[in-house]
Amino acid sequence: MDIRRIGKHLLGHRWRVRKHLPPEAMAAIERAIRAGETTHSGQVVFAVEGALDGIPLFRNQPARERALDVFAHLKIWDTAHNNGILIYLLLADRDVEIVADRGIHARVGEAVWKTICVAMEAEFKRGRFEAGVVEGIAAVSRQLAKHFPKQGAGPNELPDAPVVI
Predict the structure, then answer these.
(1) DSSP symbol at 149
(2) pLDDT computed for residue 13 by the predictor
(3) What's the pLDDT tens digit per position in 84-133?
(4) What is the pLDDT of residues 49-67, one digit of tens each?
(5) CA distances from 130 to 1, 5, 15, 71, 150 (A)
(6) Could you give the CA distance from residue 144 to residue 85 in angstroms, rounded to a whole number?
(7) For the segment 135-163, what is each residue's pLDDT rounded down to a tens digit?
(8) TPM domain: from which residue to which, for each copy (predicted)?
(9) Contact of 10 with 111, CB cutoff 8 Å
(10) What are the CB-based long-range contacts (under 8 Å, 24+) for 112-118?
(11) In Å, how far are 8, 52, 76, 100, 106 from 16, measured between CA atoms?
């Protein structure tokens, strides 16, 4: 168990989300998701967690495992074409993970998702959280548009508003 990581998570929680992604930034993120979904039939969800607490923290749960839990909890896997995508940000670790449902993941692959995550994390290191998230959403949307282009007016299966955990 990494005591420094525990301290980082215990000292900062939900306030961290509001500090790095204030309401205006969250509104911009929602607009970016909505704009991206006009180009594809996929479903993009952005979820941010200030810090882990309780069992996930004391089990030293990595951001990837937590992202998988959030993906399941938010039922992102439950889309008609299996093309839901979660962009998960764990602020305490400044770690971003992309979890893609099997329909889109089979066509894109892990290397592309990792490249998008690395670009987002580089923006976070510069203190540009809103820009990093919006650019990440745009990159994910380009992949979805390539493999699942918009065809007619399909339903919006998942909410576009960012989820704060």
Answers:
(1) B
(2) 64
(3) 999 999 998 889 999 999 888 889 989 999 999 999 999 999 999 999 99
(4) 988 887 777 677 789 999 9
(5) 31, 24, 16, 21, 26
(6) 9
(7) 999 999 999 999 999 887 777 878 899 99
(8) 21-142
(9) no
(10) 112/143, 116/140
(11) 11, 12, 25, 26, 34
The model's pTM is 0.91
| 3-149 fold | Diaminopimelate Epimerase; Chain A, domain 1 (3.10.310)
Both structure tokens of 41: 């039939």
The DSSP bridge partners found for residue 84 are 43
Tell me which residue of 82, 97, 86 sits closest to 148, measured CA to CA.
82
- Cα 116 → chain centroid: 11
Question: What's the CA gap between 65 and 77, in Å, rounded?
Answer: 16
Q: How far apart are CA 79 and CA 43, in angstroms?
A: 8
Amino acid identity of 14?
Answer: R
